Amino acid sequence: MWDERQLDGVEFIPEPTDYQIVSAADPTTIGHQEGWRSEVLGWAPEPISVIPRRSQSGKKVLNVGIMLLFVLVMWAVWRSQFLILEISPQSSEWAFDNSGARSLQSAGLSGDGIRVCMVDTGIDTSHPDFNGLELVFHDFLSEGNEPIDYGGLAHGTMMAGILVANGQLKGVAPNVVLGMAAALGEDAEGENSGNEGLVADAIEWCWKSFRADIISLSLGGIPDPNSSLEGPSSSAVRQALDNGVFVVAAAGNDGGDEDDGRVASPSNVREVISVGALDNMNLIWEGSSMGSGIDNAGDPETDPHQKPEISAPGVGILSTGPGGQYYTSTGTSDSTVFVAGILALILEAEPQLANSPDTTCIELVKVALKNSAVPLLDGVSHHPSWGYGALDGMAWLDEIQALGSCE
User: Fold this and answer.
1) Backbone φ, ψ for residue 116 (5° rounding)
2) Of the chain's two ends, which shows fewer C-beta atoms within 10 Å, N or C?
3) 138 is catalytic
4) Of the listed 110, 216, 333, 372, which one is catalytic?
5) Which listed residue (127, 138, 155, 383) is catalytic?
6) Is 155 a catalytic residue?
7) pLDDT tens digits along 165-184
8) pLDDT tens per residue across span 328-349
């Protein structure tokens, strides 16, 4: 039996996905901010296996004895794997083409020398598409040092694949140095979620210890519009930005009738690049979160920091899954990685952008992002769902080069 007095002084916070479900939170805990959830966004998995197909002989067998011999021979060959063909999984190559990733790669860019850090559920490095991956792994959930994915559906492995897969699938920037901070895990409901304090610690590790050029955050929480205090994750992001580190974060997946009119935290931080999701027709995904036009201080947002800033492919994206399999997912998690990966290609081409001691270069890069975005509706410079438009990686690089040095 439990004593209801044990819950004295505890606040109850509605869950974002079902407001009839509440979670208990101790408001005296350091870093507590009502309404925040460091939940992973955009996970709608559909497992896709590589399908074996056995070749067939058209030879006619004229008697039972020859048929039996033929069957035995075919069985032996099948056992030796000589005649098995693998059918490639379905493709989301349109996403790499539409975003400009393949055009930048054709120009010789692969992310070489750029350090990208993800805060996620971890990574399953056994996938063959990760062969040759340069990885720095840090576990914030246990004392272990070996790479692991704590997600029930390996969200981190999927996001990593979009960025660095280099096998049957080829990611956006396969030659980056990947930092993976495992700070999210599976909760009692099978969802990927985590403690905000750990997420903040992981963000700090990304820029301070791993020395990331870019931090990619396919996660987010619900900002409290009535709170004058930021949560620890937003504070950690601000420190990274102030040290010249680019931060790309998911706008959120609460679009549609349930949209609260605010992008997720910490993508609502001014200098962060907040990303919405597009389908293969360059239409905004219905679940992509809308921005309010009001910043954290209650003032109107100004260019080039209106939220979200950009939209990128995020519907039915194929990537690496656990156990060597391939999965698809839909949401702003995926589109975030496309923007972070293309930014890595741009930093490879213009490495001086990554050496800024403050937000000067971040500002220039965001101006170029705004100017290069493909408008999704004539006469609309910024829309609360899709931002300034669709991502065009090559145009983004061209615009940066046209703007000149940020030093």
Assistant:
1) -115, 130
2) N
3) no
4) 333
5) 155
6) yes
7) 999 999 999 999 999 999 99
8) 999 999 999 999 999 999 999 9
